Structure formats: structure tokens, C-alpha cells
Amino acid sequence: MQILIAEDDKSIANSLKKNFEGEGFHVTIVDNGQKALDIVEKLEFNIIILDWRMPVLNGIDTCKELKLRGIETPIILLTALSEISNKVEALNLGADDYITKPFSFEEVLARIKAVHRRYETSLNELFFENITLHLITHELETPKEKVKLPEKEFELLKYFIENKGSIITKDKLYKDVWNLQFTTTTNVVEATVKNLRKKLEELTSQKFIKTIYGEGYLFISD
């Protein structure tokens, strides 16, 4: 696996490089976002790791520019920022994962492998954190078990994962998931969200679906 690390903290960059090479990976290090953009034009990588705060061009702007250039290589952001708003910003700009400092190499390695696996199998599966949605069988796979979802719960979860990090209104759900051009007086959206939320919490012990009162729903990890 070819890994690009853009990190201006030499101790962190060199530690990651040493550990990754111990796993048999090939690692390239640069110390700012502009250098990352330059080298991606010349070499191919399986994973790109960006520090959020770097000189010249920071990680979030580098991520944005990579996506604008059509680079599909999975991107992981490293940052000391831990607010949900920062996660939302990273996900909205195309980052595939987000690791908060301080971190262990074991965590980074696990995230790298998970992101790479998701990328390799993305045609038939959608991933978020520790859940996998199988698009052909309509099965939800979690660390506990694999269950087949009812049609609307499957379509709703698929829509949530595809729009992770964005606030989704009920009107959008009526239009895009239920294919209705108008809002009905029924509580079908609320009921389906409630059932899916309960199922996800029981299977993962995590609360992925947040209700943003007066606005809609937000799909993001705790």
C-alpha cells in the first residue's frame, strides 16, 4: 500500500512512517498541503493522510482542492479539533475519516485498513464507522450481526450515509426517499427514522441519527 502523509510535525510524521513501514507499507512524507497537491499529480497513492493545521495550505483546504481536481484516493484528516462541527466540515468536503489527536498507531492502522477496504468494495457497499450497508442484499452489517432491512429503512439509511454530515429536512426525505412532491400529514418519516435509529443503537450501541430541532436530521458518529 502506498501512503502519503502531509504533516508538519516531524516527530508525528516520522513515527507514522516508521510504523507503517513496519507493516510493509510504502510511505511518502511532505510537510504542507501544497507539496501534497504537487506530489499527487506525479505519483499514485492508496491513502492520503492530512494534518488539519499545516503551513502554506492546511489539511481541510488541501482535501477540498484534491476533490475539486477529481482525486478519488481516500483521505483521512488528523487533527486536535474534536467538535462535531469540525467532523461535519471534514465529511462535507470529502474526507473519508477523521482521527483526533492524540491517537495510537493501532487506531490509525485500523482506520487506514477500514477506509481502504471500503474504497475497494464501494461499488456494492456503503460504509460509515462500524456499519456496512450491502446495496444488493439490503443487509445492514454491524460488529454484532447482519440483518436484512425493510425496504424503506434500507433506502433511508442509504440516503443518510450518502449525505452524512449534512442536515436533512423532512421535506427532502419525502421527496428523495418516499418520492413524494408534497408533505403529507402522516408521520411516516418520523416513524421510519425512529425504527431505524432504534435498530442502529441496539446493534452498534452508537447514536448515529441526531435530531436537529426545527431543521431536520443529521447522520454523524458520536
Short description:
The protein is α/β, with parallel strands linked by helices and 222 residues long. It is 41% helix and 22% strand.
**In the residues, how many domains can be counted?**
2
| Rg calc | 19 Å
CATH architecture of the largest domain: 3-Layer(aba) Sandwich
In what order do the strands lie side by side in the largest sheet?
2-1-3-4-5
The mean pLDDT is 88
> H/E series, N to C?
EHEHEHEHEHEEEEHEHHEE
**Considering the protein shown, what is the CATH homologous superfamily of the largest domain?**
Response regulator
Oligomer: single chain
Overview of this structure, please?
With 222 residues, the protein is of the alpha/beta class. It folds into two domains: 2-120, Response regulator (Rossmann fold, 3-Layer(aba) Sandwich), CATH 3.40.50.2300; 127-219, Orthogonal Bundle (Arc Repressor Mutant, subunit A), CATH 1.10.10. Helix content is 41%, strand content 22%. The chain is built from eight helices and twelve strands. It has helices at 10-22, 33-40, 59-68, 84-92, 105-120, 151-162, 170-176, 188-204, and strands spanning 2-6, 26-30, 47-51, 75-79, 97-100, 125-128, 131-134, 139-141, 146-148, 167-168, 209-212, 216-219. The strands form three sheets. Strands 2-1-3-4-5 form a five-stranded parallel β-sheet, with helices on both faces. A four-stranded antiparallel β-sheet has the order 6-7-8-9, covered by helices on one side. α2 packs parallel to α3 (59-68) and α6 (151-162) crosses α8.
